[in-house]
Design goal:
The chain folds into two domains: 12-71, Arc Repressor Mutant, subunit A, CATH 1.10.10; 80-225, Four Helix Bundle (Hemerythrin (Met), subunit A), CATH 1.20.120.530. It contains ten helices and two strands; from the N terminus they run αααββααααααα. The protein has helices at residues 12-22, 34-41, 45-58, 80-89, 92-113, 116-131, 135-152, 156-171, 189-202, 206-225, and strands at 61-64, 68-71. A two-stranded antiparallel ribbon has the order 1-2. β1 and β2 (68-71) form a beta hairpin. α7 (135-152) packs antiparallel against α8 and α9 (189-202) runs antiparallel to α10.
Length: 228
């Protein structure tokens, strides 16, 4: 199977991930109770909990005994407040400089360590970004694509660092970004740039993965700020 052939989301984990993303759940939203989810997806309770365990390890959800399952975001009692404060004090330019420092190195590690499951998640994010009907849905998938690369590094510290970086990114005030179309056009430059990153990781080429990610982030920076 070639890198960009469609991938079917057949596993309970993938079906639940798609349900959360496609349902436009926001950080802090509570998911339906387990009984409702088992009926909706025709799963056993054990299969559902195994899938939820996997999504919690990814950082997509978190669970509170007695209260339910929530989409990850402002989780009580953790470092979210401090990260949000950093985001409020950081300029978009400095945010992009930080990404240029960190994310290419994560992509390089992903090219060394990516599993088949990690590559599948990457492909699914690419496909869903291409089919997004609006900018919001595209940006959700863009976020998932970059996180799937951090997951592919197979390094919990790097994944945690990426998640913290991403929390800060969301808190940065970007101002009004003008969109001239309802959704990204087929010629949107990030599509080809993302495919180049994924192809380098699939080819187990660490330096190409590093450079492809760096080129992508520079391209994004150039669109926002000019040459960086």
């Amino acid at each position: 199977m070639s890198l960009f052939e469609p991938v079917k989301a057949n596993t309970a984990e993938e079906r639940l991930r798609g349900y959360i993303i496609d349902g436009a759940y926001k950080a802090g939203d509570r998911l339906p109770p387990e009984r409702e989810l088992t009926e909706k997806f025709e799963l056993t309770r054990a299969a559902l909990r195994k899938a939820l365990d996997a999504l919690e390890r990814e950082g997509l959800i978190w669970r509170h005994v007695g209260k339910g399952t929530f989409v990850a975001g402002d989780r009580p009692g953790e470092s979210g407040g401090a990260l949000m404060e950093i985001g409020r004090r950081l300029t978009p330019f400095r945010m992009m400089r930080a990404r240029l420092t960190i994310e290419p190195a994560i992509a390089r590690e992903a090219a060394v360590n990516a599993s088949g499951d990690a590559m599948t998640r990457m492909k699914l994010a690419l496909e869903r970004a291409h089919s997004a009907s609006n900018w919001h849905d595209y940006e959700v998938q863009d976020d998932m694509f970059h996180r799937s690369i951090a997951e592919a590094s197979d390094n919990l510290l790097l994944l945690t660092l990426f998640d913290q970086l991403n929390q800060v990114r969301r808190a940065v005030t970007w101002g009004n970004v003008t969109r001239e179309t309802v959704r990204p056009s087929n010629s949107h430059s990030s599509f080809a740039e993302h495919e180049a990153i994924a192809a380098a990781i699939a080819a187990r080429n660490p330096e190409s993965a590093y450079e492809s990610m760096r080129n992508h982030l520079r391209s994004v920076s150039d669109r926002l700020f000019g040459e960086i």
